[in-house]
Queue: 4 jobs
Job 1
Amino acid sequence: MVRFEQGPIRPPSEASSLLVRVSRSCPWNRCAFCAVYKGERFSLRTADEVLRDLDALRSVHGEDPRTVFLQDANALLTPVDDLVRILEGVRERFPRVRRITSYARSHTLARRKPEELRRIRRAGLDRLHVGMESGCEAVLSTMQKGCTRSDHVEGGRKAREAGFELSEYVMPGLGGQALSADNADDTASALSAIGPDFVRIRSTGVVPGTPLAEMAARGDFIPLSETETVSEIRRMVAGIASGRLESDHGMNLLVELSGDLPDDRARLLGTCDRYLRMPEDEQRRFVLARRLGWIRELDQLEDRRVQAALDEIAARMDTEGVPVERVLEALRSGSVR
């Protein structure tokens, strides 16, 4: 029987990548908004273990894989010699691979020596996915991120200087209503200081069972509405100097927000404005259709079949006395499937 380990998650952009588990779980594992890895212990796998997995994976996939993602949450904690062996092993066994990527924490990148990062890059690690989440110190502290703003900026800059392609993930809404403006402005300025290749939006959702959900239940965190989140995204996009903006996650309302900054800034802001100018009832209809998975873009709301289905649902909720806002919040949090 062919045996190899695989972890539970990877970035959406790595959906077609071969998954190679280099570490298990997350070394920090305390972020208030995250439900992944809770109750699990972090450990690093040895290079020999990973190389055996690579042999097993090759027996299954042959030389077909073109992209490879190193799991789990922070492969950059692997000793440099081991990580270099693993990367060379990937390239040897899968000669057609065009890109090898990994998650990395800003805290780790900021503390890695520049020569270590350059060596890892030369060995074949091409792209790093970094969860900045926010550039606001108050938000990072409240959410127990385990990284400071300076960690994010220093780590991101060191990654870029070492030659890595860099994706930074940000979470509009992570400051709640109290810190929405600060979250937008400080995140935009931190991204501008780093200059990543990609800025990927992950709108905040309060996931049941997380510390953030407990904070919300106590009233210590007031989540943004869908419309407030779009307003925060608009403010953030207006302040980011450069990078490819992507809205490639199911939690995001406006998946059309994809383009290059600063060249496409006017179009991206215009998409936000188009939604924000819609009458409130039309906003609710769009959100409902989007969260039900019926549509992906604003233009699709004009489809007559979608309109008819939304009318039917609205009539049923009215008859049964179900508030539409409660349904929308349940859909957004994932408590309704």
Job 2
Amino acid sequence: MRKKLIIFTIILLILDQSFKIWVKTHMSLGESYTVFSDWFKILFVENNGMAFGIELGGVLGKYALSLFRILAIGGIGWYILNLIKKGTPKITLYSFALIFTGAIGNIIDSLFYGILFNASYGHIATMFPKGGGYSSFLQGKVVDMLYFPLVTKHLADGSTFIFFRPVFNLADSYISIGVGLLILSAILGIRKKNSNK
């Protein structure tokens, strides 16, 4: 089972990083492409902090956040190995593997993108730029691009209501799917126990 989870993780990481690198090297910050009608777009944004652009105390906060993420990834990896030894059901193992992979995908951006790419403001970034990257180790920004404005309404006061507004990436979706599967398997497990009483 360990080998299957490793292969699963590697494939998903390659997909996440390939998509991010393509966006970074083919789009300038804020540029967008319409994929399907008005409800699915590729919109290039960068996230300097946590989810929804929340930031944590400047440069030192970014170092603290990056180090916390590295420790969390180590903890999740250790937990998955223990679950394998215990013979945990596959759905639970793959759920945690999704969360683990998503966390690694985003920490790669934070660790390395600042030194691998130049800035994307007003132009398309270059990988391995001659003048160096836009930041230092642990100070990179997470690349987001998946945007699903499913409902857009222009309100009477002149403002615009958009559902679903967040822009995210594949790594974020891995984490969300993993958490969703864990919740679903817990609910189904509780129902199964209740039906056996």
Job 3
Amino acid sequence: MRLMILADTHCGHLFGLTPPAWQLNGIDSETPREKAGIVQRAMWEWFEQRVEALRPIDSLICNGDMIDGKGPKSGGTEQLTTARDDQCRMAEQIIEYINAKNVHMIYGTPYHVGTDEDWESIIADKIGADIGSHEWYEAEGIVIDCKHRVGGSVIPHGRHTAPAREALWKSLWAERAIQPRARIIVRSHVHYHTFCGDNTRLIMTTPCLQAHAKFGARACTGTIDLGFIIIDIKDGRFTWWPEMLGMEFMAREPRPL
């Protein structure tokens, strides 16, 4: 079976994964919204091509932050739309386009998907998916542990620490026979892809599908990774790889003095 793990699409953000019906025109312009249109098309065209090449996809796990929310910290200035019902429709179109036989969802961070309500529940209801905060899935004896949030790091060599810590806590929960013992542990949220593990398990953070914009340019320093994860399971074994989108279309040149 083929499993796709998709996370942090941030639908509704100017630089989130945006289906064609919502894309801005985008020409070679200096205005932020026109630049966003160029990025939206580049990301969607790549996404469409890779999904087509990877079909059929048996199961899809949406590991949180499928929508971006109202963006209150930036006054909504980074939003393509602040209407969360429209953001949910974008996410639904993405999931429907993938056309997986089974869809599972994990709640994202309250800032994006709702503090008083869970907007991702609306998406799950619409597409007929199950949804939870921390879930385990099993295929051919391989258990996959999925949760959205994990700690990040502002230093490159510290990015493995939080996933490794997650793995240790999972072992302790499993020793108490409260949580299943997982072969694959998946976390998202940090917008970069890294992995670690040993001969008994794989621990990873997933790439995202939201390019960096105003907040990232002003407040963040680390690199991000655009893409999603594919895991193939057969005869009780698995192979996996990240499908990654290069970011040449976001390249910057110095301005003349």
Job 4
Amino acid sequence: MASGATIGFGLASALGWGAGDFFGGIAAKRGPAILVVLFSQVLGLTVTLTVAMLSAEPFPPLGNLAWDVAAGASGVIGLLLLYKGLASGHMGVVAPITGVTAAAVPTIVGLILAGLPGPLVLAGFVLALVGIVMVSRPEGTFRLREVSLAATSGFLLGGFLVLVGLDGIDALWWPLAATRVANVGFMTVLALAVRPSAATFGQWWRPALAAGALDIVGNGFFILASQAGRLDLAAILSSLYPASTMVLAAFVLKERLARVQWLGAALILVAIPLMARG
């Protein structure tokens, strides 16, 4: 049985990440995704590093923090691809595919480390596969760019979920700060290489600010969830975040999804807790 803390923290993480992705997608529609991610991660680094230094948490061993740095590198690339996907297509299509892929990665890692999954996990995989096919056909057209961005993003974000759970640190703020160091470093190098224009900064900084704050919330609750119970369960529950992204896109942006897409998204969202219960 899963602990109540793991379930509560995991679902809170999903709410934070889902709302953060919505605002990140809004910002990326108005400005360069590279600068949007960099801006939000600089905010995250400033907040988490300040709180970590002011807190009573002891500084962890560098070897343990290396897992968080690796997690940050994987996560920020996944986040960049996710924002590009959210900006270029329907949020209600990109978000579910990313979520189920991110949930599948820690599940597969668990399969390799712990053996074959139970029947509920297998049923979850089947439902997820069917759901991805259904949700990926907007208006009867298969949009390869949206699907490929979402799937690649999900794979990298799933890698973040696995790596951040391997640090063995009983702390919150130092692991969060370590991931942000990698995020900011990678995005700074990328921004210097690409040199995107910041001319539209006034149009996107507010949603990017909201995305960065909500990303901290999501990451913090995920770390708490992984410390309270099983890593794979925490990862899968937190991967329910597409639900809040889809709801916000439907009600705020008035995105219209076909009935088959809603059904496909529902199958995906059913598949994730099935894998968790397995």
